Amino acid sequence: MFVAGVLLSEPVAALLRRAMSDHSAQQELGAYEARADRDLYGWSVDHELVSVAGISNDRPDAELLHLATSLEHERHGHAGALLHAAFTELALRQLVAETDGDAVDFYRITGFEIASVASAWPGSRYRCTLRR
User: Fold this and answer.
1) What angle do CA 67, 69, 73 make, to 5 degrees?
2) Separation between Cα atoms, residue 90 and residue 69, nearest integer Å
3) For residue 114, what is the enclosing H or E element?
4) What is the average pLDDT across 98-105?
5) Pairwise CA distance, residues 15 & 24, whole Å
6) Which positions fall inside the N-acetyltransferase domain (predicted)?
7) What is the 8-class DSSP label of residue 75?
8) pTM above 0.90, yes or no
9) In whole numbers, what is the pLDDT of the chain averaged over residues?
10) Residue 125 CB: number of other CB atoms within 10 A?
11) Is residue 96 within 8 Å of residue 62, measured between CB atoms?
């Protein structure tokens, strides 16, 4: 079930850290509390938050900043359901994410259009776009 307005609690932060590098996690987590342009959304199963997404609130276009699912709930479709629910509930025209080769197939399967992009990061990078 889609959950809007998720607050940054320690369990949510622990979940989000799965999608962040160790050196930037504290700064990124702090940005969800300090900046008005970021919101957290979740997906719950049996009243347990199993997946969380950090999304910029630049509507009708938005950027997916972070996406994480608890280890025991990975590969059950919760993250994809969360993204599609957020896309619909927020009445987005497009939702964009940048990712690496490890996650690009998830976005492709979830219905995002995929394009290679140049990046300062090592390895391949992709711009993934879900459009209305």
Assistant:
1) 155
2) 20
3) strand 113-117
4) 92
5) 15
6) 1-131
7) T
8) yes
9) 93
10) 17
11) yes
40-61 confidence digits (pLDDT tens): 999 999 999 999 999 998 888 9
Domain count, the chain: 1
Single-letter residue type at 80: G
DSSP string, 93-106: SEEEEEEETTTHHH
Between CA 131 and CA 124 the distance in angstroms is 23
- Please list, in sequence order, all residues whose beta carbon lies within 8 angstroms of the beta carbon of residue 89, skipping any fewer than 6 positions away: 2, 4
Residue 23, CA atoms < 13 Å, CB-side half-sphere: 0
Query: 97 is written with which tokens?
Result: 């994410």
CATH of the domain at 38: 3.40.630.30
Q: Which residue type occupies 17?
A: R
Per residue in 122-131, pLDDT tens? 788 999 999 9
Quote the CA–CA distance of 24 and 47 in Å, as a whole number: 30
Q: Which domain holds residue 66?
A: 2-131
Band the pLDDT of 8: cuts 50, 70, 90.
Answer: very high
Residue (of 111, 25, 105) closest to 126 by Cα position: 105
